[in-house]
Write a structure and sequence with these properties.
Distance between the termini: 69 Å
Largest sheet: none
Helix content: over 70%
Structural class: mainly alpha
Strand content: under 5%
Length: 202
């Protein structure tokens, strides 16, 4: 396999590096999302119960002890819950946006890899074709079909490799984006539940 890929030229290395980097990002985000789901389970309802019963200290302790995006958002919200409504909503929106940015970390890099891999493959193909035609010129145009076909398939190898890296990378990126969107919706639903609990308390 190594001998086969080495025929693709110098850009095979960068394309393979892109594939390894994309896989590392995908696995890291999957682990991160799994931890977020487990840590934030049922937190909003517990905090809301504390708030409705007037136990602000219990609510704050529960939020602080839960190392999850929802826990951090509720912690910030509870710290300003006695201030005016505009301040509370501003803090909640800012905290939610910050957590969504954290969940989206590295996803832009994944999209960049998905876009760059086929371009690297195309560049490798162009360089390979240039090299093949230079050989034809040096031989005075007297090249049989076998020699020409061999040069062309070697040149096309990088395009195929670039597409093979780009396609699963873009699928992985779309999947992770959908997960982030789902978590963002859950965070917003949680903050709505929290605000409703504050209204019932008052």
């Amino acid at each position: 396999m190594i001998a086969f890929l080495s025929k693709g030229g110098i850009l095979v290395g960068p394309i393979l590096f892109c594939s390894v980097l994309a896989l590392a990002i995908f696995l890291e985000r999957l682990i991160r999302f799994a931890r977020v789901r487990l840590r934030g389970f049922d937190l909003v309802e517990r905090v809301a119960r504390y708030v409705r019963t007037g136990d602000d200290n219990g609510a704050l302790d529960a939020a602080r002890e839960n190392n999850s995006p929802m826990g951090r958002i509720l912690t910030h919200a509870l710290e300003v819950k006695d201030q005016d409504r505009e301040t509370l909503e501003t803090v909640i929106v800012h905290s939610t946006d910050e957590e969504v940015r954290e969940l989206s970390r590295y996803l832009q890099a994944l999209a960049t890899i998905g876009s760059m891999a086929p371009l690297l493959g195309l560049l490798g193909t162009v360089l390979g074709m240039i090299k093949a035609f230079m050989v034809i010129q040096q031989m005075g145009g007297k090249v049989n079909a076998a020699v020409l076909a061999g040069g062309i398939w070697e040149a096309m190898l990088t395009t195929a490799l670039g597409l093979a890296v780009a396609l699963p990378t873009m699928v992985a990126h779309s999947y992770l984006i959908s997960r982030v969107d789902r978590y963002e919706a859950q965070l917003k639903d949680g903050t709505v539940t929290f605000i409703k609990a504050l209204k019932r308390q008052s």
